Amino acid sequence: MTGKKSDKTSSEGHQGHRKRLREKYLKSGLNGFHDYEIVELLLSLGTPRKDCKQAAKEAIRKFQNLRGVLEAPAEELQKIPDIGAHSAFGIKLVQEVAREFLKARILDKPFYRSSQEVFDYLYHSMRGLKKEVFKVLYLSSQNQILNSVDLSEGTVNSSSVSPREVIEGALKNNAAALIFVHNHPSGAIEPSSSDKGLTRELVYAGRIMRLKVLDHIIIGENKYYSFAGEGLIEEYETDFLNQMLRGTAEARKRFYRANVAGDNIKY
Questions:
Q1: Which of the two ends of the chain, N or C, has the fewest CB atoms closer than 10 A to its terminal CB?
Q2: Residue span of the structural domain in which 197 resides
Q3: In what order do the strands lie in the sheet with 224-226?
Q4: Tens of pLDDT along 114-162?
Q5: Are residues 116 and 234 in the same domain?
Q6: Tens digit of pLDDT for each residue in 168-187?
């Protein structure tokens, strides 16, 4: 009799705890929640009558943080006691729904030349990636985002990202402007020499095809680097125009030497 009463008290205790978590969420969202409490809420969707607190804490210990839990393979999640197939499925479903929501949100919203806005939309889906992923956002002349494309995975440089592919994508999407985004799995945001060289190439290719490169954003750990914000996009555009002007000046000099200085003016 004592055992049944103890089980009942324990059950009432975790039900009360779960109710408090839900009320806290309904009142202020996830503000003030620990990572394990968020995981606990997710697990409770798959096992509504079971205490999930210990399993949630164990998941955080194993995968380090909420991001790690969301990114963990379903089979690895199920190795934790009390996390079954239903709970693992629920966690992976939430992750995929969040990614699709963020993608739909950015495609539905005009882009106002705000690198912060792009960072806010893409951070959730890119912050936990183990490899560098290079994205291209194609925009209309009114800065409406038309499409978002993953162009490469791995080290980002001129050999892995082809300017030709970028231009072909722009023509396919009838784009007038471009934004480039890639992540640094290390969490650091300073651009490498390859990042700068590739961005310069892409700005040059855009100018030739009359496409405006608005920005190249590097996503790190809860922070980002904006090439436009640091003045590098403008610098590369100026370099391109100067090269064009120098090329035009050289062509004029050659014409002058061949046709004017040699008194060989042709009509």
A1: C
A2: 110-251
A3: 145-153, 133-139, 177-183, 212-219, 224-226
A4: 888 888 878 877 877 888 999 999 999 888 888 889 998 877 665 588 8
A5: yes
A6: 999 999 999 999 999 998 88
